[in-house]
Amino acid sequence: xxxxxxxxxxxxxxxxxxxxxxxxxxxxxxxxxxxxxxxxxxxxxxxxxxxxxxxxxxxxxxxxxxxxxxxxxxxxxxxxxxxxxxxxxxxxxxxxxxxxxxxxxxxxxxxxxxxxxxxxxxxxxxxxxxxxxxxxxxxxxxxxxxxxxxxxxxxxxxxxxxxxxxxxxxxxxxxxxxxxxxx
Length: 183
Hints:
With 183 residues, the protein is of the alpha+beta class. It has helices at 12-17, 34-37, 147-159, 174-182; strands at residues 3-4, 39-46, 56-64, 70-78, 83-93, 101-107, 110-119, 125-129, 136-140, 168-169. An eight-stranded antiparallel barrel has the order 2-3-4-5-6-7-8-9. A hairpin with a 4-residue loop joins strand 4 and strand 5.
């Protein structure tokens, strides 16, 4: 049974900081197409934060809202006790809509930065930063990402001074299959 209000991906810490910044020395992608970005993404790796600690099988599903924003539905499970957590939020562009820079909120007026700093030409993977180098996610359309692509993304993040040695590689394996079929 989902626990509404328990935040995962881009959760409480990011949002309570209320910071929609962009890490110094990074740039969001241009020629961004929201329609192509919408849909389900699987979290491949992340930097550790209390709002996602212990979470596996993590996904983010993006869809259009009636007000022109983006509905964000994050889900994950703690495999040790089958505890599913989900959080629903909303996101809006900061500036031009062809630039991968958004603000996201799960709690009222508090927003955090969602900066797409690398994106596959076919929208198969993305590298997302928060407002500073404490927040980094590798997302993919499938539960698994080719090892060469993983290495390239880590190298790119390392070149941007993210602490990539601290990345947590999310379990998206067989233990997640049954849970995925439910969600």
